[in-house]
Amino acid sequence: MKKIYLLTAILLLSLNLFSQTSMFEREVPQAVKKTLVEKYPDITAAEWFKNNDTVIEARFSLGKKKTAATFHTNGTFLSSSQVVTPKETPGMISNYIRGNHPNQVASMVMMTETADGKISYYVEIKQPGIAQAVTKLYFDFYGNLTKKIEPEEIKIEKDAEEGLTDDLGEDIASGQPIKKKELPSKVVVYIDKSMQDYKFEKAIFVENQKYGTLYEVTMRKLGYKEFKTLYFDLLGNLKVDVEK
Hints:
- The chain has helices at 2-13, 30-39, 91-100, 153-162, 185-194, and strands at 21-23, 47-50, 55-62, 65-72, 77-83, 105-114, 119-126, 134-140, 145-149, 198-208, 212-221, 227-232.
- The protein is α+β, with helices and mostly antiparallel strands.
């Protein structure tokens, strides 16, 4: 779980790569490099990106933490973002998630500090399992919710029906085995309630001409060598007319 959390953190720090331009260190203004060294004297190397005409971003490791810092081209420090582990997440934020989203877990927590010292937190929560929709939460330093962005349910459903799975990357490679706990909670609830005479055997991703990427779940009847195969879309909806 820790490895998955760290991988997600690295990916999140790179989310806006497509809107950025990588830079050679020699292209970075001397004033920016000077400010970086003054603020983070212990770092030994950084990757540089141009966010726009006036903002440059440096990415580096601070201790064992992935960190990103932004600067104005004149050398002024603007902000920094750093991954926060579950144990480091403020109690007020953890309590909010448990109280208001009891069936979801935090898949990502990041702390941002602006030039004036203001600290805020960005949190992504989702249902357990692969390819679950994400809700974005924003908190101030004291753990007060300041903004909430619900998942794009319509877009996700459309993508699932059309088989548009680019955003899911290698997670949905056809034939990849899936553990029961990685299935959408909707699938787990269905098989636990409706298939009580069966035991979970295995699950994989498969490609279907009509529905695109599906979960193929194989159940074994208790006490028998009798198997039943079920198909669910990425939202966890049972598909009864799937042709093998």
